[in-house]
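stuck on this fold:
=====
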Amino acid sequence: MNIKPFVDRPILSCVISVFVLIVGLISLSNLPVEQYPDIAPPTVRVNTNYPGASAETVQKSVVVPLEEAINGVENMMYMISSANNSGFASINIFFRQGTDPDMSVVNVQNRVSEAQSLLPAEVTKSGVTVRKRQTSTLMNLSLYSPDDSYPANFLTNYMKINIEPRLSRIPGVGEVNVFGANYSMRIWLNPSKMAKYGLVPSDVTSVLDEQNLEAPTGTLGSESDHTFQYTLKYRGRYENEVDYENMVIRSLPNGEILRLKDVATIELGALNYTYFSQLNGHPSCNCVVVQTSGSNANEVIKEVEKVLEDARKDLPKGMDITTVMSIKDFLDASIREVMKTLVIAILLVILVVYLFLHDFRSTLIPSISIIVSLVGTFAFINIAGFSLNLLTLFALVLVIGTVVDDSIIVVEAVHAKFDEGYTSPYLATVDAMKGLSTAILTTSAVFMAVFIPVCFMGGTSGIFYTQFGHILPEFTDHVSGTLRSSAQTQKTGALCRFVILRQIPLRFQQKVRFIDSRV
């Protein structure tokens, strides 16, 4: 292989090197940062509620019809269902890796609509929700009252009204789950009093449906010659306990009126009492923030912290919000340790090269070549759709030590030419690379051949090894081309002529097409 065109055109070599650095730095700034690649299979969750039903009733009347309808949906692997004694039912459908989660939601929704007629009326009335399930939890927040001046229901209500909408609007936040119960008007029926007046719960329910509703009342004068038109209004739904207490159940034979307060206790309580949350012994409301696939976890957490900082300024006295758990601490620590290992690896490589060559200039040139190749590899990572995680960074750490032998061979070959009596750096570089170019290219191809089959693995393990297997050949190919042309700089005083060979763009295009075909 002939590298003479790059030896003869040092300016072209410098321009390509600068271009590689710029593209790599731009790609590095746009890469998402996460601990591990997205290995969780796409998941769709179906939720519904059957008020007052036991877990067995929910399983038979709700879960079984939905499972029979959903079973066999496109690209489905398996599903898991659960039901509890509070009437809540949940079905999680797991799909194969690479399945479009949005289309999965549509397909599941179509299957659920087929089973609507088989569900109880109470379930259909409350609704069946179908949504994507995110599994990448970023943070766990808690809104609490340090002086116990606010109950848990108030904290939950404040969280859902004032904080949850702001968190949901942050780019990269897929879901905000608030664990708590909303306010609800609770009517506690007294069984003995109900029996005394011959009432059953359905009697109270019918009264609520008749007297506590929102309905259109129409207008007066809209179809006449009158000048004025009046819109009729009425009170509609009740809001206070007193209004519910005075609702008329029936008139008694003695002429008295039986009101709801005579047979029940009315209070403004919680919609359900499933959750009980405290922070350090104080009432609280917990909130979990989940990220979308492919988003930058660090950036999302920073934006969430900014929103929380602004929200703290508007919190009422006696209320505070804190972060219970955040993956940013562990993520930063993990990335920091890997980056530290990466820096140590580069320093060890430079030290090893210096021990072999005993020349500072000869050591500096391949060392800079490795850095240029390292930065340029981030462009491949960005194009392939990978992220900066522990696996991709570990691949970079491993491959630096693997390819440093090329730099030693190339630079040592040029030194050997000078020991043979060459006085021209130009001739020494050209003659040295005539016998090495083919050998280095062959060793690079063999190294790539070892790792490329890993890229064809499927499943969860394939996601791990695919990123690992892609980056190793890309970096090796990149560095080998760089080092083959770096020999031209020996004894010339030019430190910027470390560039990839002209065959690299062709291989780069072929690799991109290969990745696209897999997608």
Notes: The radius of gyration is 35 Å. Residues 479-519 have pLDDT under 50 and may be disordered.
